[in-house]
Automatic annotation (TrEMBL):
This is AraC family transcriptional regulator. It comes from Paenibacillus rhizovicinus. Signal peptide: none annotated. Keywords: Activator, Cytoplasm, DNA-binding, Transcription, Transcription regulation. SUPFAM superfamilies: Homeodomain-like (SSF46689), Regulatory protein AraC (SSF51215).
């Protein structure tokens, strides 16, 4: 069913993809079959704010956890306003009125995790006691955990879903301890390049129809390709090329289930001009054709809507 939503700049847009992060928790469960139990994660993404970006007076029906990768912004929640900067973790609850904007002339790059526990009790208020600002964590393990969670959320399979849930719970446990900003960093994964590696990941996800542009990635990060590959794998558990392949597979699944596009059109959207090459790649990586994947999701014969893949 087609739905209407709003872009970050407030313009109306229409699409066929459900915005799970905006739904009531119980309304998301059918679409979250890969999560067998709580916490259910409905959104995990990196957002690079455009110039003069912001919103106000918004409410969600789920929890949201945010980490500022770079830049400065202003976070408003329940009548209070907070300045947020690199390394800050902040949090808002279901139905709390909130807003967020990039400060004029400042960059703003952040990670957002939206999640819920369905109807299961979870002692978040015992943990956070009404807090919204949870501390500054640049250079700490939390920074790496946010980055790893976002990377694994885009990858298929139960092990990655379990890893996402484990990382989210680890983050919640760590930030509940409220260390003072500037305290000695805990044992962290690679942190000095996290922001640049996030830019690489974001660049790839936003250009699935294009081949990897190595010179552009080197220019974007200031890192050589030979150095970037092991650093990316250390941070996200996969090389940039492997991440591109899995991101294409994930996007193809979304398009197949949520749009009326033909297999050829889906292949084009994810960087394959030859539908047969796309089909071979998809089957090699998932163990099934895209037709079989669609029919495995729906009780009725979903394949009747699609051209046959040969």
């Amino acid at each position: 069913m087609e739905k209407t939503s709003f872009s970050p700049k407030g313009t109306v847009m229409s699409n066929l993809e459900p915005d799970l992060a905006a739904l009531h928790p119980q309304e998301t469960l059918d679409a979250l079959r890969d999560f067998r139990f709580a916490p259910y994660i409905t959104l995990a993404h990196i957002f690079h704010a455009p110039r003069d970006w912001g919103f106000s007076n918004r409410t969600l029906k789920q929890y949201a956890l945010n980490y500022v990768i770079d830049g400065k912004g202003e976070f408003a929640v329940e009548g209070e306003t907070h300045q947020v900067a690199k390394g800050d973790v902040f949090f808002y609850r279901p139905y709390e009125t909130h807003g967020l904007r990039a400060l004029p002339g400042r960059p703003f790059l952040s990670i957002t995790i939206v999640f819920h526990f369905a109807d299961l009790p979870f002692p978040l208020e015992d943990v956070f006691a009404g807090m919204h600002m949870l501390g500054r964590y640049n250079g700490r393990s939390v920074e790496h955990q946010f980055a790893e969670l976002v990377a694994k959320y885009r990858l298929p399979g139960a092990p990655n879903r379990l890893a996402c849930q484990s990382l989210l719970l680890a983050i919640l446990a760590r930030v509940s301890q409220q260390p003072a900003a500037g305290a000695e960093a805990d044992a962290a994964g690679p942190s000095s390049n996290v922001a640049r590696l996030m830019l690489v990941k974001n660049h790839i996800e936003n250009r699935l129809e294009e081949p990897l542009d190595v010179p552009e990635l080197e220019r974007l990060t200031g890192l050589t390709w030979n150095y970037l590959i092991p650093e990316f794998k250390k941070a996200f558990g996969t090389t940039p090329m492997q991440f591109l392949i899995w991101a294409r597979i994930s996007k193809a699944k979304e398009l197949a289930l949520q749009t009326p596009l033909s297999f050829g059109e889906i292949a084009e959207r994810v960087g394959y001009h030859d539908v047969h090459a796309f089909g071979k790649m998809f089957k090699k990586k998932t163990g099934m054709s895209l037709t079989d994947f669609c029919s495995s999701i729906y009780v009725t014969d979903h394949r009747n809507q699609w051209p046959e893949q040969r």
